[in-house]
Amino acid sequence: MLERLLYRSQATHKLGSLHLFTLLARARERNLRLGITGHLLYLDERFVQCIEGPPSSIETLWQRLQVDDRHFNLELLARGPLEARRFPDWTMAFSSYASFRRFSLPGFFPIDEQGMNEFTERCVRT
Ligand SMILES: Cc1cc2nc3c(=O)[nH]c(=O)nc-3n(C[C@H](O)[C@H](O)[C@H](O)COP(=O)(O)O)c2cc1C
């Protein structure tokens, strides 16, 4: 059985790219162990994250996310069972400003002027 959880939050500081990439690299390592896949959007000092995996792993991560002081005002947008993963190939795909392209980050997807791309749409779809 699989569960999906979608939330948004506000970044505590204007996170520098180095902090963001460190967060992402660690998240990907843990997600691999927890069987979690998903997508993270960072835009205008806000996050929108979609996590999917075994319900126990989702609960563990959700508890940690809520006490992580790198973001606040967490708002749960959706949570429920999922038939098939939307991001089977990504321990955490990452979408943000096209200017981040210069870092050649694996699993990075630039957003358009509306803050969207194929991944952000897949993440928020009901
Ligand atoms: C916006 C945001 C997204 C995060 N995404 C993940 C994630 O996908 N997987 C993960 O393990 N940790 C993620 N973290 C980090 C967790 O909040 C937490 O620091 C991490 O799981 C380690 O928890 P621990 O220090 O209690 O072991 C994220 C943190 C933030 C601020």
Can you characterise this structure?
The protein has 126 residues and is of the alpha/beta class. It has a single domain (2-124), classed as Alpha-Beta Plaits (2-Layer Sandwich). Helix content is 29%, strand content 35%. It has 3 helices and 6 strands, in the order E-H-E-E-H-E-E-E-H. Strands 4-1-3-2-5-6 form a 6-stranded mixed sheet, with helices on both faces. A hairpin with a 2-residue loop joins strand 2 and strand 3. The protein starts with a strand and ends with a helix. The model has no long low-confidence stretch (mean pLDDT 95). This is BLUF domain-containing protein. Residues 2-93 form the BLUF domain. InterPro entries: Acylphosphatase-like_dom_sf (IPR036046), BLUF_domain (IPR007024).
Write the layout of secondary structure elements.
Layout: E1 2-11, H1 17-34, E2 37-43, E3 46-53, H2 55-66, E4 71-82, E5 93-96, E6 108-110, H3 118-124
Parallel strand pairs: 2-5, 5-6
Antiparallel strand pairs: 1-3, 1-4, 2-3
Bound molecules: flavin mononucleotide.
Helix share bin: 25-40%
Number of strands: 6
Task: Return the string of H and E elements.
Answer: EHEEHEEEH
Number of domains: 1
Report the oligomer. single chain
- Find the CATH topology: Alpha-Beta Plaits
Query: Structural class, from helix and strand content?
Result: alpha/beta
Spans of at least 5 consecutive residues whose pLDDT stays below 50 are none
Mean pLDDT comes to 95
Order of strands in the sheet with most strands = 4-1-3-2-5-6
Strand content: 25-35%
Instruction: Please write the CATH class name.
Output: Alpha Beta
Bound molecules: flavin mononucleotide
How many helices? 3
